[in-house]
C-alpha cells in the first residue's frame, strides 16, 4: 500500500472513473462517462467533500418609501401572487388592490393606491432582472456594495443601514477609512449549489456543479436557508489605498 495516496498511483491498474454518482443512487450506469483517473482518499478525510454555497443579500429597495404594513403584505406569497397573476397592460391592477382593502382579513383598510404603487415598484424590479442576461458573482456583489455604501433600505424592510463618516471615529478608523455603514439588519439567502472533492477550488461553472445534484430530470430549486443578522461595512479611503 506504500504510495497509494500519491498522485497517479492508480494509473497502472488501467481503471478510470465511470461517471457514476452514488449520492444520487446511480451506482451502475454511467451518465457523464467521466473517464478521468482515480485517486485514493481516506474515508472521512476533510478533502472528500467541499460544499459550494452561493449567498446573496436581499435588497428590497422597492420598499424604502412605503409603510411596514404594505411591505409585509407584499412579502406575503399569497398577496403577491394575487396581485402579480392578473396584470393590466403589464401593470398592477388597482381594482385588485381595492378588492383586497375591502375584504375582511390582513389587507382590510389598507390604502389601495399606496399598495398598488409599492407593488408596481416591486414588479418593475423583478421584470428588470428577468430582462438581463445571466448575472455574474461580481454583479451581485457590486449591487450589495452600492446598497451598503449608500445606506439603502429602511427600518420597515429587511435591509436597514445608515452611513457615518469616518471623521466621527478616532484613529485608526479615520486614517484608513472614508465611511462606516452600520447595518442594523439584513437578510441573506444561502443556497447549496454543488460540491467538489479533493480540492476546494472547482473551475467548473455553477450550472455544471448543479448538474451533479440531479440525474436526468430537470430541477428548478436548490436547498437553501435564510439568515438574518446585522453587521458593519467599512469603506476604505480611496486616496490612501491609491497611495
Order of helices and strands: EHHHHHEHEHEH
Kindly estimate the percentage of residues that lie in beta strands according to DSSP. 15-25%
Largest sheet: 4 strands, antiparallel
Separate helix tally: 8
DSSP, total strands: 4
The structural class is alpha+beta
Q: How many structural domains in the coordinates?
A: 3
Average pLDDT level:
89
Low-confidence stretches: none
Helix proportion: 25-40%
Give the overall shape.
Answer: flat
Rg computed from alpha carbons, rounded to a whole number of angstroms: 25 Å
> How widely separated are the two ends?
56 Å
Brief overview, please?
This protein has 243 residues and is of the alpha+beta class. The protein has helices at residues 68-75, 77-84, 94-102, 112-131, 137-149, 173-176, 206-211, 238-242, and strands spanning 50-57, 160-165, 177-196, 224-236. The longest helix is centred in the middle third of the chain and has 20 residues, at 112-131.
Describe, in plain words, how this protein is organized in 3D.
With 243 residues, this protein is of the alpha+beta class. The chain has three domains: 1-40, no CATH class; 50-58 and 158-243, no CATH class; 62-156, no CATH class. Helices cover 30% and strands 19% of the residues. Strands 1, 2, 3 and 4 form a four-stranded antiparallel β-sheet that branches. The longest helix has 20 residues, at 112-131. It is flat. The protein starts with 49 loop residues before the first strand and ends with a helix. The model has no long low-confidence stretch (mean pLDDT 89).
Amino acid at each position: 500500500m506504500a504510495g497509494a495516496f500519491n498522485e497517479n498511483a492508480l494509473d497502472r491498474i488501467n481503471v478510470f472513473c465511470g461517471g457514476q454518482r452514488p449520492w444520487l443512487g446511480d451506482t451502475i450506469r454511467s451518465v457523464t462517462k467521466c473517464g478521468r483517473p482515480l485517486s485514493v482518499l481516506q474515508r472521512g478525510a476533510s478533502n472528500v467533500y467541499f460544499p459550494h454555497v452561493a449567498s446573496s443579500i436581499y435588497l428590497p429597495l422597492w420598499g424604502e418609501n412605503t409603510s411596514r404594513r404594505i411591505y409585509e403584505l407584499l412579502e406575503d406569497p399569497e398577496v403577491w401572487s394575487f396581485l402579480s397573476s392578473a396584470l393590466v397592460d403589464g401593470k398592477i391592477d388597482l381594482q385588485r388592490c381595492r378588492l383586497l382593502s375591502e375584504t375582511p382579513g390582513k389587507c382590510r383598510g389598507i390604502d389601495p393606491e399606496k399598495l398598488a404603487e409599492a407593488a408596481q415598484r416591486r414588479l418593475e424590479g423583478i421584470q428588470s432582472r428577468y430582462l438581463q442576461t445571466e448575472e455574474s458573482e461580481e454583479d451581485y456583489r457590486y449591487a450589495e456594495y452600492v446598497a451598503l455604501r449608500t445606506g439603502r433600505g429602511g427600518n420597515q424592510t429587511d435591509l436597514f443601514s445608515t452611513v457615518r463618516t469616518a471623521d466621527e471615529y478616532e484613529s485608526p478608523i479615520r486614517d484608513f477609512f472614508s465611511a462606516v455603514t452600520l447595518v442594523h439588519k439584513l437578510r441573506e439567502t444561502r443556497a447549496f449549489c454543488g460540491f467538489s472533492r479533493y480540492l476546494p477550488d472547482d473551475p467548473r461553472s455553477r450550472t455544471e456543479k448543479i448538474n451533479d445534484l440531479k440525474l436526468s430530470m430537470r430541477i428548478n430549486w436548490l436547498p437553501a436557508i435564510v439568515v438574518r443578522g446585522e453587521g458593519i461595512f467599512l469603506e476604505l479611503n480611496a486616496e490612501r489605498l491609491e497611495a
